[in-house]
Fold this sequence. Notes:
Layout: E1 4-7, E2 10-13, E3 16-18, E4 21-25, H1 35-44, E5 49-53, H2 56-59, H3 74-83, E6 87-91, H4 122-139, E7 150-157, H5 166-178, E8 184-189, H6 193-199, E9 205-210, H7 214-224, E10 231-236, H8 252-264, E11 268-275, E12 286-287, E13 295-296, H9 315-324, E14 345-354, H10 359-362, E15 366-368, E16 383-390, E17 394-405, E18 407-412, E19 415-421, E20 429-433, E21 438-445, E22 450-452, E23 461-468, E24 471-472, E25 476-481, E26 501-509, E27 515-518, E28 524-529, E29 532-538, E30 545-548, E31 556-564, E32 572-576
Parallel strand pairs: 4-5, 4-11, 5-6, 6-7, 7-8, 8-9, 9-10, 10-11, 12-22
Antiparallel strand pairs: 1-2, 2-3, 12-13, 14-26, 14-32, 15-25, 16-21, 16-25, 17-20, 17-23, 18-19, 18-21, 23-24, 26-31, 27-30, 27-32, 28-29, 28-31
Amino acid sequence: MGRFNYNGSDFTYEDKPVRIISGAVHYFRVVPEYWKDRLLKLKACGFNAVETYVPWNLHEPQPGRYCFKGMADIEKFIGIAAELELFVIVRPSPYICAEWEFGGLPAWLLADSDMQLRCSYKPYLKKVDAYFDELLPRLAPFLCTKGGPVIAMQIENEYGSYGNDHKYLEYLKEGMRQRGIDVLLFTSDGPTDALLQGGSIPGILSTVNFGSKPDSSFAKLREYQADRPLMCMEYWNGWFDHWGEQHHTRDAADVAAVFEEMLQANASVNFYLFHGGTNFGFFNGANCQLYNQYEPTITSYDYHALLDESGQPTDSYYAVREVLSRYKELGELKLPEPAPRKAYGRVPITGQADLFGHLDALSAAIASPTPLPMEKLGQSYGFIAYTTWISGPRPMEQLHLQDVRDRALIFVNNEYIGVIERTGEEQTVSFEVPAGGAELRIVVENMGRINYGPYLKDRKGITEGVRLGFQFLFNWSIHPLPMEDLSPLIYDALSAQKHPAFYKAGLFVDRPEDTFIHMGGWTKGVVFLNGFNLGRYWKKGPQQTLYVPAPLLRQGNNEIVVFELHGTEEAAITFTDTPALNS
């Protein structure tokens, strides 16, 4: 058993001074078969600790239904770190940000119209308590006080950037202590007065997050905490991408130089990120700092980190290791063998299934006077289709979606007439209704809940109502489309796409190897491999390829399903050995 604490300006482990050089590796963004590879590379870089968030929404997808298997097996991940003699920093806050869907909060919280988040609202705390009752006993055996690798745990994440309810922070702290978490607890916030005041509580170590200017950042921390160690809990050595942006990069020499400034200040450092990984499925988050300026994050969480999305060392890896070698003995660099890659080539599409012809097979219709949001229907992710009938005749009038979250395709009598997106600019669609009336169908994509800032309460679908002109439209048939089970689909021969459609292809593999699916020619949608959701693609970039780790492939036949919203220039997909992120 060991004790991690601090004595004056030094961290200590078993009463001996220790400096923490840590890197963030999110187990939930990496297939389990590659966890050891990523951690071996972290240790080879000279790091002595790994840090990870814990996303509540992954571990409790439905109230009271918990998941700790596969990519959610945090106990296995920590166990591998222990085998490699790495310290572990765990950040199990109810909220994690992390550019992760809803900042890690479960979407089902929003089924309660009165729900208040990240504060002392009792119904929220009751849900947190139930989650902690399941999660924390799983982590307790790994604490360093019990002989494990976990040296510290976070209470809440960048809380000063959201609120100032110190009773809430105290409640979380006591909840952790009461459930046997007796290691060092900490908070992390930006290095400003307001953020440190809002996010810190007495007796708990404060840490700061930044990407540059460590001198001024640590100086501000010392104003609030003069007698404790300095730690940058998130050194932003790269950045994430939104759809429609250029891929963010950062010069390796700059990454290394800022790191060395922190070493010279006798600070401990956690790189955010050492390895980003992938936002598989529908788990990407989104930003929205100004109302309705919504920016969803791409599928890749490459982050231009020390390891790229597929786990290969980057220039920053070698530059950081070179700096660290001047402060501690590292020895010869020995890396695991890189995972082989293969370009499997062009794979033709063999079948097509129209969404509208399969709505009832994929989902039981729900009748409602108004177009309810997903959360009210028990749905967390994916798509949702709303259908109603409008009497006619009516002249050309504008359709108003009040409000759409996040992107709606509009069909009148099964004819596509336009898209309304949640952007900073108003988008309109207008149409006439013939004398016999018309069917209106709206297919809405949840493109990821907001993960940071004041607009976290981000219900999806159509959140209030639909108007044609001034008149609200009532009496809707709603089909939730979480895309969890595509087995009911029946594929036909290829034809011109009129509606959102599923496309099927087959890939025969002699030996599974890492690869990338290049979605050139396709417009927007989601790709499934052997039932596993690889994530979203969108031709606006910057991401052009989807990463396919070898463990997701089977030796022999593999099934690929593409759900395409608009259409493709060619009925084929291409497997390449090279990722494409436009910068």
